[in-house]
Each structure stands twice: as structure tokens, then as C-alpha cells.
Amino acid sequence: MADTQADTTFATAENDSQFRFGLAKWIVVFVFSATGVIAVAAITAAAWRGGDSTFSSVKDILGIILPVLSAWAGTVFAFYFGRENFEAAARSTAALVKQLTPDEKLRSIIFKDVMITVDKATKLLLDKPENAIKLKADIIDGILAKENRERLPMFDQQGLIKFMAHRSLIDRFIVQESAKGKNVADLTLADMLADAPTKEVLVGSFKTLMQTATLAAAKALMDNSKICQDVFATEDGNPNTKVIGWVTNVMVRERSTV
Q1: In whole angstroms, what separates CA 27 from the centre of its chain?
Q2: Distance of CA 245 to the CA centre of its chain
Q3: Beta strands 116-117 and 243-248, pairing class
Q4: Residues pairing with 248 in the sheet
Q5: What are the structural domain ranges in the chain?
Q6: Domain 106-255 falls in which CATH fold?
Q7: 158: which DSSP letter?
Q8: DSSP of 71-107, one letter per residue?
Q9: To pair with 39 at 20 to 30 A between CA atoms, which of 63, 75, 208, 238?
């Protein structure tokens, strides 16, 4: 079906190009023919009738008609050839963009232009003790499942990023603890932080930078860490200041495609 649509689009564009070419050709032919006929007729009339008044009248007529005809021809040239040049330039630009490498494309994209702003992000505000935040009720059921999300940034009340939790990490921890006989409903964020490997991911799977940085800089931070999958823009690029926006590894990968 896609091939059929592409063929139809190509055929339409080809027909449009042929129509414009034919229209331009016949208008130009008409303008030059009319100019020649009028010029011959004027010269013949002036030679036949003679006199200064006849010559002056012929000159006035030519002065009125010829600018009109030349304006028609100029308009056609500007429309047809100008459009052709524009389309050629657009095709050249598109071809050049396609030749960019993924890293070159990321260097052309500013972080703030594509980031998820804090006000639009699904997040958890740490407004109560960590041992009072239930993994199942508050995080999975209350946010992730409800909002259909797979990752959850956690901010303190000053807007600083504290932890980054992915659904897979939480599920893995719950399975690990339930295998030890613990009640899933009782597990809290504090329990995750008490488990060293899990805490390492919660506090180390994100980095920060300035919002004026490029996505190439965000990708470099991710590439330099085995567990980093998220980058946050803060007011001064440091983790100890308020978060402005957020970019995930998926977003970086999608925008690196050429």
C-alpha cells in the first residue's frame, strides 16, 4: 500500500511538472510571437503612413504593449525557474542531512528543545519518609501502572533529583525479596535503598547537565556509564540544583537515527 501511495505521489508530481513546463513554454512562445508581430506591424504602419505623428503613435503603442508582454514573460521565468531552483536546493539539503552521522545529528540538537519538562513529567515527589512509600501501592499501582510508565524520577521538595527507578528494577527487587518470604505489600522505597546493588542503580542511573547542552553531550554521559539511561537538565548543570527537564536513552536513540 505504501508503494502504491508513493507511486501516486510521484506520478502527481511528474504531471504537475509537465503541466508547468508546457504552460511556461506556450506563454513564452506567445510573448515572443506577439512581440514580433506587433513590431513588424508597427514598422510597416510607420513606413506606409509616414510622418512624425504616425511614428510617435507607433512608439506609444509599443511602449504600452511591450512592457506588459515582457512582464508576462518575466513572471513565467521567475515562477518556473525560481521554483525549480528552490526544489533542487531543497533536495540537495535533504540529501546532505541524510549523510550526517548519528553523532553529527545529535550535535545539532539542543537538549532543551526536545526534553520532557518537569511540569509534564510523570514523577514522584518525596514528601514523606522513604519507609512510608510503598513499592506496590504507591509506586507501581499508584503511578506506573496508572500512568502507563516504565520509569519514574523521584524529586525532593526543592525539585532536586534524588532517585531514578525503572519498573524493571522495582519488579526485580520485589521478586528477590518475595523469594525471601517478605510480604510484597510491605516493601518500601527504604527497603530498596537498604539493598546495596539496588541503591547503586537508584542513585547512579542518571546524570545531569545544562539545558543548553546538545544531545551528543547527553549521549556521551550515558555511554560513559554502564547503568545511566537518563539525563536531567538542571539550573547550572549540577545535581544539587533544581531540575528543569529530562531526556531518556530512548529519546536520544530515536533522534540519532538518520
Answers
A1: 41
A2: 17
A3: antiparallel
A4: 230
A5: 2-99, 106-255
A6: CBS-domain (3.10.580)
A7: T
A8: HHHHHHHHHHHHHHHHHHHHHHHHHHHHTS-HHHHHH
A9: 75
